[in-house]
Amino acid sequence: MNLCDLKINDSAIIKNINLKGIKKRRLNDLGFINGEEVEKVFTSIFKNPCCYKIKNTFIALRNEDACSIEVEYE
Amino acid sequence: MNNILLCGNPNVGKSSIFNALTGSNEHTGNWTGKTVELAKSKIKGTKYTLIDLPGIYSLSSLSDEEIVARDTLLFSEYQKIIYVIDSSNLERNLNLLIQILQINPNVIICLNMIDEMEDKGICIDEEMLSDIFGVEVIKCSTKNNIGLDKLKNSLESELKSNFKFLYSLDLENKIKDIYELVDEKFQNKFIALSLLEKNNSIVKTIKDKFNIDIVDKKISNYLMNVNEEEISNDIVTKINSLSKEINGRVFKREKNKKISFLDKLFTNKITCILLMLFIIFGIFLITIVLANYPSDLLSNIFVKIENILYNLCLNYNVPKINYEPLLFGVYRVVTFIISVMFPPLVIFFFLFTYAEETGILPRIAFNFDKVCNIAGCHGKQALTVCSGFGCNACAIVGCRIIDNKRDKLLAILTNSFIPCNGRFPMLIAIISMFFVNSSNKLLVSFYLTLFVLFAILISFLTSYILSKTILKGKNGFFVLELPDYKKVKLSKILKISFIYKSLSILKKAILVSIPAGIVIYIISNVFIGGSSLYVILSNFLNPFAKLIGLDGVILLSFILGLPANEIVLPLIIMGYLNSNNVPILSDYTSMKGLLIQNGWTITTAISTILFSIMHYPCATTLSTIKSEVGYKWMIYSFIIPLITGIVFLFILNLFI
To answer: In degrees rounded to 5, what are phi and psi of residue B8?
Structure first.
């Protein structure tokens, strides 16, 4: 499944980031790296973007981008 | 050579450290990407100059900030790097530190915001951290003045990091291969890795700086067989696992980060929208009510000073031709602008800075990104819209927070639809005269909020149209950190909003209004065939102005008001009074009588308000746009709102 399918308060492990180049690098820099644990903490009022907790920081991503991140439950 | 670089992730309190060490007052805010230009200042009591690099997450994502930081780190001369870490976020902060150590081992680590650590149940073993990297680690807090002297003293230390680590054998061999192929001065691990990742931006920097094409035939042949995605993965994984391991050894956390109460309010649809409307409405109400008193006071004082000056001129027999343009032209225009604009500006920026410092602004961008996305623009445009209420020129500078060029242009071109503080006094005056029959401040705020919501709508609608026409293209990448809410000192906010925002805007406005004062005086005092230039021009404009619900005087006032929107209303009054001087405005009742005498109806009132929302930006804003994105876009930013306004009003006046 993908990160955007995660329910609120659920956490999962990042398996793969299906993006290339700068987008992927930027996600890496913020802590979205294979093997990291990520939790969906809340959504914005219009349900897109959503906020994720990674490395104990809150990062907002658009659902389109979150759908390119494969995750798996522990 | 006595330069010291200040580095770190965004929002780790770098700018606060900068201000504390140098005694200067660079503006800080609780959100990402405040510093785009490099601030430089002398560190108090030392020979060193501190350079504040932009806050970045890494050196390899290739945003403008990262390129500036990377090039400074790689190719400028400096003594030491102070690396600032947000203590509650050690792990991610270590990533950039490890990258920087590959460039230069002369680092001091500054563990910032340690006073907030205890609240969060965090403990960092700084001795262990110091042993691991072989550098000094200093705990700091600017709020409580902890560790700053120690930080200054440590600048003299000779300690260099002895931190070493190896990538995979394969990658290390590739780095060695690159070393053999490049000039000695580029034999640096970071440069080698960038080449292997096929990072063109570093090639460009070297070409610009040293006039050397580092990717010669040999290197480009070598790079043919390199898979850059694999290399990138290798680097990211290695550095990440290192930071994880180090973090595990030195960092202890008792509590986990929780969703705060405010975030619960801000992410619930109903409470958030209510809260936002309440905030907008409240800000207007507060501004309208509070700004009145200091405005009146200032304007009374200025009138008294004018009388004194006038009498002095009479007593000393100064010729009329000398003092009249200065006193009745320049002086009146400038003082009018000060008394009308300054008090609401201070109040607005106080509230805005508060929202900025506490961390509410990124939540607004987060919540309204969907709306912005539909309008084809970036979520951060919601923020530049907010700061447009204070000053459009400031908002244009603020558009720098948007990385993507196209998204930035959308934000810039549509910002002047947002009524700034210079336009509010006129909107409030017209609403008070024609929409509400008393001085009911609540009702005035209500109507004002409606017009403002309309302005926001038009701004986003224009964004949408532009994003489908002249600014077609892909949306930039939206990824935004939501920092913790912070408690802030009121005195600090007052200082920032008063001195660094309001005063600097006022200075600019005065500079443009001085020539305007002279021009206005000339136009109304040069007579051709018995009538003044002002009358001739307004008669000339009248037929066209009638088509869009205005009249010649109103339109001419908008044209003469190009330097500053504040003077539009006084110019209108001056035109109707048929006077040769900018009038001193009296109360709303007599003003309303004058307007009605000159044929104003509710339609004129609505048309004037709408034209004030939809016309060209003021001169200060235009010159800011020119310096930010160039002439071409300045012209667009002039034409787009003007045509929108004319077309809209023309159609509106066909039907009413």
So the answer is: 160, 175
